[in-house]
Amino acid sequence: MHRRHFLKCGLTALAAGSLPRTLMAHPHAVMDHAAPVAATETPALLPAGRLPAGQALLPLPRLRNEATKPGTFSGTLVAEPGSAQLTTDGPATACWRYNQSLPGPLIELEEGMEVSLTFINRLPEPSTIHWHGLPVPADQDGGPDDPVAPGGTRVYRFTLPPGSAGSYWYHPHPHQGVSGQIARGLAGAIIVRAPGDPLAALPEQHWAISDLRLDAQAQIPPHSYGDWVDGREGENVLINGQYRPALALSTTHRVRIWNMCPARYLNLSLPGCEFVPVGSDGGLLEKVLPAQAAILLAPGERMEVLVTGADGHSTLSLLPYNRHPMMSPPPQAALEIATVTYQAAPQPVSEGVALRTIAPLGEPGNLLRAVMMEKMADIMKNKGQTPPRAFLINGKSFDMARVDLTSKAGVVDRWEIINATTMDHPFHIHGGQFQVIERQYLGKKSAPACLAWKDTVNLRPGEIVRLLMRQETPGMRMYHCHIIEHEELGMMGMLKVS
Ligand SMILES: [Cu+2]
């Protein structure tokens, strides 16, 4: 699959008249030792059907609150190598986990809470924990500029402000090695709850979706060159760590969905049912949106939906999504990731009903521009063991010693983000939530259906997204592509907030 993607890149370059066909036939002929990451061939993979399927979906384990004082949360996350019995009859899979859980334990918090999370790094390399989307101070956000050494311990502290309820997640964010750490299993979900939540009475179901590549020995292989260029899409898609589980929606549930995959786009479809969007990355939408037959979550994104439909059985599937739209790939089949039994129930909220008040961020006081770029010639030229740092923002590869953009705490930034590459990229900004105000694609401008808080937004090739964001505290913030491999290969920048 990755080779095919890779060859598709080659065809694009060929179409541009820039690439000899012999390079396509011998993609590992050229070496590049400039980048600090290595790549290998994709090994023989675990045959389909070796992971046990059809087991009832289990809730995510919850991180224990060690605090006794009301309004406080104190928890411990230990990242360490271990092994998990994933196949029915094969060897155990060596993996890296938080608290020996795949994915890591769910952290359930409340608005206003004083949070203290102790991270113990028992990995053989530096790591951090980034609280993806949460409004935490820059020095508590586990950025690549703040590594925790192997054997080290770090306590992250923050207080959750009013209005911060939503579905977030946590994952490593070291300067190098982040893609390997996530590919081995390090990620977990966070929920922040609010008083007065209008949907609080609904039962919840949590779909923390991740993917995992397993070789023929059920081990997680190193990244191939195609993984680096395209981002790794593990063949085994897991919900709450389970392969093709059986889901039961016996009444209307509030379903929270996380895309924790490094690169896989989740184009979710449940034939016979529809999804009613009620929440985005940063919590409830302004109002209930019209039901949709399919919903798309780019890597890093979250959604809250109600599921509506007639009684019956169905299959939760990932419809094909072409994130290299200029390359006309052959059609791919939908990928079934769960079975679902569903019982019809009255919808507790109808389309257009207000869910919360979201105040527009208002007039910007600062303009920021980020152009995502790729050096396709380098990608094609350097098809060796080591991938090139060919993914850029504003013409530059990430450099932690360089400030790329500046802002001021309390001032509204207007970001203009431009995807000048040939593939989709999900753009993520650290520090909190933003409001998308406009998209521009194929010459047409459009506004979102309602106000919503987001921290990750997908851009198709040639698309421009304009958004507003207010950084509340000073410090250094990152912005980057959330295809983890692209971030690691340079598609990241630093925003200095003073
Ligand atoms: Cu990207």
TrEMBL record:
Residues 88-195, 384-497 form the Plastocyanin-like domain. The keyword Translocase does not apply. GO terms for molecular function: copper ion binding; oxidoreductase activity. Transmembrane segments: none annotated. Residues 1-25 form the signal peptide. Pfam families: Cu-oxidase_2, Cu-oxidase_3. Keywords: Metal-binding, Oxidoreductase, Signal. The keyword Phosphoprotein does not apply. This is Copper oxidase. It comes from Chimaeribacter coloradensis.
